[in-house]
Amino acid sequence: MNFSELSKEVSYALRHAPWEYELELDENGGVPLEQLLSSLQLNSKWENLTVIDLIEMIEKSEKKRHVIYDGKIRAFYGHSIPMKIVKEEKTPPEFLYHGTARRFLNSIKEKGLLPQSRQYVHLSQDIETAETVGKRHDNKAGILIIDSLKAWNDGIKFYYGNEKVWLADMVPYKYVLVK
Ligand code: HQG
User: Which end of the chain is more exposed for a tag (fewer CB within 10 A), N or C?
Assistant: First the structure.
């Protein structure tokens, strides 16, 4: 079983194109596990897929992208579908981090951190995670430090993704420091 390929396809279905799999997400982004399974099984690549494989995919993944609960499965973050997924508002840690490409810095300075094609801006709990995220866009990623607790106290909302990923609707540049 290629768990990395499976994780990519499950992410695509749950974050970006549930309709291609005839799935309807609930407000938290959850779908019945059996529905996702049957839909994936229609593809010959996944015809022998089982619930155990989905559980193993989640457990073996370095990044905590999905969770199974109450017979459903959902993605913790990353959504781009039109219906905005409801996330849990939560007081953030003192600082959060964001890894980005150097070529985006001028625009970020001008407009703040925006979600771009996703529903939320993605922030990292630690610098190491931010570096990994940033390297997806630029081999020498720029690391931004977010004055998150101050922003929260000023009324900017933050939401919990998983233990390493936090979300925000946007972050004005005055709360951003370039490392
Ligand atoms: C940038 C992956 C110009 C932003 C990762 C980022 C993460 C701006 C890019 C998760 C901007 C969007 C999300 C502005 C923000 N002007 N550029 N004003 N504001 N940007 O991929 O945060 O492996 O949508 O800096 O690990 O890189 O898929 O977001 O560079 O956790 O599970 O616009 O996706 O997780 O890029 O990554 P993305 P991201 P998975």
Answer: C
